[in-house]
Amino acid sequence: MKALYYDGEKAVYKEDVPVPERSEGESLIKILLADICSTDREILKGYRPHFRGIMGHEFVGEVVESEDQRLIGRKVVGELNKGCGRCIYCLTGREKHCLSREVIGMSRDGCFAEYMTLSTHLIHPIPDGLPIERAVFTEPLAAALEITKQVHIDPAGNAAVIGDGRLAYMIAQVLALTGVSLTVIGKHEDKLKLFEPFAKTALLSDYLEGDGFKSLTADQCFEYVAECSGNASGIQLALNIVRKMGTIILKSTYAGSSSLDMSIIPVNEITVVGSRCGPFEPALKLLKEEKVSFPDVELYELKDHEKAFASPAFKAGFRF
Ligand SMILES: [Zn+2]
Ligand SMILES: [Zn+2]
Fold it and tell me: How far apart are alpha carbons 68 and 73 in whole angstroms?
């Protein structure tokens, strides 16, 4: 089968990869669509130095083999993280944090291939009438919804999203649904235009002065700041625009590190929440009911992966 393989340095397109064999408890999925995530781009920059294997974790596929007969022929999406099922994390609803978890496209073979195996309990059938082109947004939208599981958002408050990329767009749509007053802060005027139907927008430069950050009044600051800029400087801005006793939600994962003056967190009694993967079923529901919408995915053949990875489109992916 065709597959896009990470060899520790770069993505390699192969046509002679054997179709994977399903183990007990797994289903074999024929991949229909797969999207490139920023995390995949970070992997190419060294975010997962020990990973070797087929890349990709955002997909829609069709189940071709499974012990669960009801799934055969169904179009499905799937969660990334498979835990051991026995440890304290797995037994207390924190499977995605299992120390011996396997993550598709990051520690085991992923979905940039014609077929993939996945634990059956991680599979979610997509509702009838939801096109696969929209269903492929389930995983990143679920990650955005995780914020509303973790943080009580007072709709009378205000929130800022730092970043104007794909994850920022999903998070902004989810936060806008709460009714909170929302501002999106980004670097790109053209990307910020996309947010205008449901959020105020501001340029990062509006918050800078000289070598540092502009000092802001309390009114200009935010109760909630979701940092999803995808780079290490985002948290610096977040600390500058969050109100005292406010909440920062960290969403960016990137290769590299950040050095910070941490004392601002205790002095201002700021809550910092790390946030990763989220619930699939409500994401599927919002997509099906068109409560959220996204620009079309730009689709490529797998062999044109370099073009796909270089695409400036809102989201690029592969059709199989
Ligand atoms: Zn992703
Ligand atoms: Zn476990």
Answer: 11
